[in-house]
Design a protein that fits this description.
The chain is 10% helix and 48% strand. It has 261 residues and is mainly β. It has a single domain, classed as Acetoacetate decarboxylase-like.
């Protein structure tokens, strides 16, 4: 259980998408992303975070996000993509946080992936709570729609989404709600008694309006949250971005729990 931290304990710095110095360790593409967000009370989020992190809020509101998408061309930065390994669906449950330096980022409660190899590597080297799942991303029943299904191999939780991408949206301005929810370039992870911060670099998302025609998720309850019992409070989609992934850095000690169950 994380201790309550005063706002003064955390500096406030802007979420600026700067490319880190040094070489990337991985390259990949994130395609056909759906961003779904629900408002959740801050005092529900805070106890789930390790010491050294606090909820990052917009207008005093905290959020849980679900993002289904497709990983493509995943490989070490110095190698080409590998058939059968570098392409697979992924699904994550996340919230938004800041560390003691005020750096904004993502805290993942779970990441489901359709590749056992990716799951093993991410858990071992990036301390992220990945789960192997049977997943499928394909055209939906209605013309122009996308269907996404996921079932965890070990525990059986199932999620399904279907959506239509709509017209292009203007680029979100810094300080806007959509910028806050979507433009995140740092992630946090915990393992071995340490808190880590990682970085990614990619162009800003080109966002589209979206119509979500089906949303049935099991990620909230699997992570210990109450089901929202309603549709998302915010939803957009994106065709995708090319991404560079950089090494983790140790930033703090964790004395209460590991990110990986």
């Amino acid at each position: 259980m994380a201790a309550t931290l005063s706002a003064s304990a955390f500096a406030r710095v802007p979420a600026v998408p700067t490319r880190p110095a040094g070489p990337a360790v991985l390259r990949q593409r994130w395609s056909a992303l759906l961003f779904l967000h629900w408002e959740v009370p801050v005092d529900v989020i805070l106890p789930t975070l390790p010491p050294g992190l606090e909820p990052d809020t917009f207008g005093g509101r905290a959020f849980l996000g679900i993002v289904p998408f497709r990983m493509e061309k995943v490989r070490p930065a110095f190698l080409p993509p590998l058939p059968g390994v570098s392409y697979f669906p992924e699904l994550n449950l996340r919230t938004y946080v800041r560390d003691r330096a005020g750096v904004p980022g993502v805290w993942f409660y779970s990441l489901d992936a359709g590749s056992r190899v990716a799951v093993a590597i991410a858990r071992r080297f990036f301390h992220l709570p990945y789960h192997a799942a049977r997943m499928e991303m394909r055209p939906g029943v209605a013309p122009g729609s996308i269907s996404f299904t996921s079932r965890r191999r070990a525990s059986g939780e199932e999620s399904r989404f279907e959506w239509f991408g709509g017209e292009a949206l203007p680029a979100p301005e810094a300080g806007s709600w959509e910028h806050f929810l979507v433009e995140r370039y740092r992630l946090y992870a915990a393992g071995g008694g340490r808190l880590f911060r990682g970085a990614v670099a990619h162009p800003p998302y080109a966002l589209r309006r979206v119509e979500v025609t089906f949303c049935a998720e099991s990620l909230f309850s699997a992570a210990g949250f109450a089901s929202p019992g309603r549709g998302p409070d915010h939803a957009v989609c994106s065709d995708g971005v090319d991404v560079e992934v950089f090494p983790l850095e140790k930033i703090d000690r964790v004395t209460t729990r590991s990110a990986i169950p």
